[in-house]
Amino acid sequence: MKNSEYREKKRIIKVVESADVIVAGGGPAGIAAAVSASREGANVILIEKNGFLTGAHASSHVGTFCGVFYIVNDKIELLVRGFTETILNELRKVGALNEPFRFGKTAVVTYDPLWFKQISEDKVLNSGSSLIYHSRIVDVMIEDDKPCGVIIESKSGREGIRGKIIIDATGDADIVAFAGGDYSKGDNGFLQYPSTNFRIANVNEEKASELSFKDIQEIMKKAVNRKEIDLPRTDGFLFKTPRYGERVCNVTTVSKQGKIIDGTNKFDLTYAEIEGKRQARKYEKVFRKYLPGFENIFIEDTGETGIRETRIIEGMYKLKNQDVINAKKFNDAVVRSAWPIEQHSLDEVKMVWIGEGDFYEVPFRCLIPRNIENLLVAGRCVSAEQEAQSSVRVAAQCFAFGEAAGIASVMAIEQNTSPSKLNGEEIRRRLIQKNGNL
Ligand SMILES: Cc1cc2nc3c(=O)[nH]c(=O)nc-3n(C[C@H](O)[C@H](O)[C@H](O)COP(=O)(O)OP(=O)(O)OC[C@H]3O[C@@H](n4cnc5c(N)ncnc54)[C@H](O)[C@@H]3O)c2cc1C
Fold first, then answer.
1. 179 CA distance to ligand 1 centroid (A)?
2. Which of 1, 96, 393, 398 is most exposed, with minimal Cβ within 10 Å?
3. Same domain, 147 and 255
4. What is the CATH number of the domain that holds 94?
């Protein structure tokens, strides 16, 4: 055997749990999937590598919910119902949600991240789902050529968990990749660039209240044009959170000296973590110096570098960029969205807006990986072309994907069939029955 290789010893692992439905990953998609499948009567286990739920929203300081609203007759209206609406209502009840505000041709809303984590945990546990933290799924169990569970690694070692249906809500399509499913990574080698979001505190709200997004962007641009500081991006946003004097800053663009970061490569990720923190300090300097009311701010913390795109599954339908632009509707639609294309490249964030009062839909088939049974996908890795993915990856749609996948998983078990054989129009009907609309 070569020096660069090592043969691990073969082992039989213990199967420590079993469930009807395994939900892999506890971001917005996973949370909604677990609650939805449990509510439909399934025995559900949600497995998460971290010690908290909400995925990138907690680990990468995302800070806002996008994709929830659309604009009708110049008014902000709720577009996505169901689980999204439930989470918003629960956050509002405890004073952890700001009022939504206009953002281009749609609207966004900010929230308190700790409350989001706690409410999500309560929702999952109260639905009857089991929760296993600190366990990374490292492989799938296969019997009769079909996934029949997952292999986890934790401080207890390597163990198996059996499940009839697996919902891949890992964001990176880990389960599809482990199962040998088809996926793409990037468009002709281009992956959207990540950002290291960070939170700042101690803003003097009285002095800062007059500053618009545009004002702040202009100040950043001027500092760069004067060659005073080298900021990788000047079109980012500082969002006011429900905590007094706090902003969540989505302003950085992380690259490997201009080259893309592959969010499934540990060396790229390591580089990104180091680079992202350095970038945050540069912005802190500019904000302190030039933004009125920001003189005494400090960075509370940076998030892990937030990855927008890695593996995207090849599903039974691939959402097209044109479907988004043309606000296309589908008979088997399970999700709708008015969020624009928001494609992060090195030099710009390309935004393509959908007409006010309109939205596009996503068919159920985007959640079904081709050629693998017993598996559904929910969240930012559903089947879509790149620009379409850059729109559909945001929170409200990920909640909605999860909710649809949860219902579909139970229907597949009830009908003793694989998700690929389900009738998407029936899932749509069930969702509308439950939520009044999608
Ligand atoms: C920088 C940045 C800014 C963003 N800003 C916004 C915004 O302002 N508003 C908005 O709505 N959206 C925003 N987004 C999009 C955001 O990613 C989505 O809203 C959402 O988090 C995607 O949900 P998800 O459930 O698909 O994946 P994730 O949130 O990525 O969750 C996946 C979960 O799976 C877990 N996991 C992964 N692999 C494994 C494994 N092998 N085993 C066990 N667990 C695993 C992870 O730990 C994680 O908890 C932003 C994204 C980035 C990167």
1. 21
2. 1
3. no
4. 3.50.50.60
> What is the best residue among 98, 138, 152, 170 to mutate for testing ligand 1's pocket, by most ligand atoms within 8 Å of CB?
170
Helices 395-414 and 424-435 meet at what angle, rounded to 10? 120
Does residue 7 form part of some domain? Answer: no
How far apart are the CA of 61 and the centre of ligand 1, in A? 10
* 374 C-alpha to ligand 1 centroid (Å): 23
Give the residue among 317, 334, 313 at the shortest CA–CA distance from 424.
334
Number of folded domains that form the chain: 2
C-beta of 438 in contact with ligand 1 (< 6 A): no
Cα–ligand 1 centroid distance for 7 (angstroms): 34
Residues 329 and 427 in one domain: yes
Nearest CA to 215 out of 241, 195, 235 is that of 235
Q: Is residue 5 part of a domain?
A: no
Ligand 1: which atom is nearest the Cα of residue 29?
25
DSSP 12-69: PPPEEEEEEEEEE--SHHHHHHHHHHHHTT--EEEE-SSSSSSTHHHHT---EE-SSE
Do residues 282 and 370 share a domain?
A: no
Give residue-wise pLDDT tens across range 355-410: 999 999 999 999 999 999 999 999 999 999 999 999 999 999 999 999 999 999 99
* Atom 27 of ligand 1, nearest CA residue: 171
| Last residue within a domain, chosen from 254, 277, 302 | 302
